[in-house]
Amino acid sequence: MQTSPIEVQKALKNIDYPAHKKDLIKHAKKHDASSKVIEVLEELPEKEYTNAADVSKEFHGK
């Protein structure tokens, strides 16, 4: 499944960084992100993300 980095960032709007992968997923679900966005977040490496650019860097190419 494909989704755009813009969709992912919209789903993570107003999240407080730094945030762990599980926090990103929880925030996206709480804000009714699409299943494609949730799937992309679930595929991210298990680590703490310091900002939106950090998430985008890991997302690139998915």
Characterise this structure:
The chain is mainly alpha-helical and 62 residues long. The chain has one domain. Helix content is 55%, strand content 6%. The chain has 4 helices and 2 strands. The chain has helices at 5-11, 21-30, 35-43, 52-59, and strands at 19-20, 48-49. The chain has a two-stranded antiparallel ribbon. The longest helix is centred in the middle third of the chain and has 10 residues, at 21-30.
Summarize the structure.
The chain is mainly alpha-helical and 62 residues long.
Widest sheet: strand ordering = 1-2
Q: What is the rounded Rg? A: 10 Å
Strand and helix order: HEHHEH
Q: What do the pLDDT scores average to?
A: 91
Largest sheet: 2 strands, antiparallel
What's the N-to-C terminus distance? 9 Å
Share in helix: 40-55%
When the domains are counted, the total is 1
Poorly predicted tracts of residues = none
Tell me the strand percentage band: 5-15%
How many runs of DSSP E, i.e. beta strands?
2
Helices, by number, come to 4
Question: What structural category do the secondary elements indicate?
Answer: mainly alpha
Topology:
Blueprint (H helix, E strand, L loop, with lengths): L4 H7 L7 E2 H10 L4 H9 L4 E2 L2 H8 L3
Antiparallel strand pairs: 1-2
Features:
single chain, 62 residues, mainly alpha, two-stranded antiparallel sheet, 4 helices, 2 strands, 6% strand
